[in-house]
Amino acid sequence: MKYFSLNDPHLKVSFREAVILGQAPGKSLYFPDQIPLITAAWLESLKSRSKEEIALKIIQPYIEDEIPKSDLLNIISETINFDFPLVKVEENIYCLELFHGPTCAFKDVGARFLSGCLNYFSKGQDKKITILVATSGDTGGAVADAFYGSENVDVIILYPAGKVSHWQELQLTTYGKNVRAICVEGSFDDCQALVKEAFSDPVLKKKYSFNSANSINIARWLSQQFYYFFALKQWPFDMAPDVSVPSGNLGNLAAGMLAKKSGSNIDTLIAACNENDVLVDYLECGEYIMKKAIPTVSNAMDVGAPSNFPRVIELLKKDKNHRSLTGYSFTSDETKKAIHDVYQQTKYTMDPHSAVGYLALKKHFSHHSKKAGFFLGTAHPAKFFDIVNPLVGEYLEVPTQIQSLQKKQVKKENIPARYDALKELLTG
Ligand SMILES: *Cc1c(COP(=O)(O)O)cnc(C)c1O
Fold this sequence. Notes:
Blueprint: E1 3-5, E2 8-13, H1 15-21, E3 30-32, H2 40-44, H3 51-63, H4 69-79, E4 86-90, E5 93-97, H5 107-122, E6 129-134, H6 138-147, E7 153-160, H7 166-173, E8 179-185, H8 188-199, H9 202-207, E9 209-211, H10 218-223, H11 225-234, E10 242-246, H12 251-261, E11 269-273, H13 278-285, H14 309-317, E12 325-329, H15 332-346, H16 352-367, E13 373-377, H17 385-392, H18 400-403, E14 413-416, H19 419-427
Helix pairs in contact: 3-4, 3-11, 4-5, 5-6, 6-7, 11-12, 12-14, 15-16, 15-17
């Protein structure tokens, strides 16, 4: 399998190169030059397969022998060693809970798979890799956890001051060792812009061998396809589900589109957005207009310039089926109301991101007759207890893996949202 640059299709690299480079030249993204197809017979057998078998089947055609099968299996089993239950919320509506990993948000899978691949590829190399990553909330924690203690990889995380939740901030700032947290006076888009500038700065490039752990890295992006197959393994009906994906940088959605193109039986994919809805606008009027990010209760989706947008466009390009992708957006008030109402009616607790997914699925059903589907539960509700607790009127049990952070020491560096400030910190 080769990966081409979306800005320059003649430029092709191997899986290894794409993982190590992260971003293609000119701030472009890598994209697989073929989409492997899954046979109907294999899909039929999904229910009897283990999640490790499923993950191997999905990812191996993208890697071929660049990682030997036994090493790949080790990486996979470390990546997915927790549960991915598909839980019934109400009649015909299910939640695929992706928050049972170490940082209680779905990004654990992508970050751990990337960590496995990078550690494999960097073995025996003399220059350390430095992951420089901007986070709107959960990426940073997942990356910190996945790379903590790695001998070959250092991590530098940029996050927007005051725009991540209490637990999210602890997840960024309590690891220490090879993990450095930088708190930026600005928005997530500011952080992302600083990271992009650092990547193309020749002075820093001399000092660091940079990599991005954002979902632009194909190892993170491609492995997110697993979720969709794990859900289908548990799907109780014959009819293909509609699938609603709480979306920000669109990595998860683009992975769902890839899974769908590979032949998985997903009916409509639904981009569930908060007020940061450039994709919804694009789907409605065919124009991509970047916006300044608006802060919402689903902060990990507060993205005005989604980094995976070009991949979504590429995946849409060859698609004649107008039902394959749709999108809806919701305000913070609607999101909070959904958390409250669903809890009242079903006792199911959703975090604000998952709630946007729920709302989009409901809205989609209201326009169509049939329907059964699931939304992705992208974070544990207790991660957002300050928003969720008052809405459900009950104290949420905080999972032990995040509770333990409370006792750890916080370490962070503060900078204004200016490139010279970041540069000074990294060259100093
Ligand atoms: C990152 C994140 C999202 C958005 O995912 P993208 O792949 O960036 O679209 C949604 N929900 C939560 C909880 C997240 O952390």
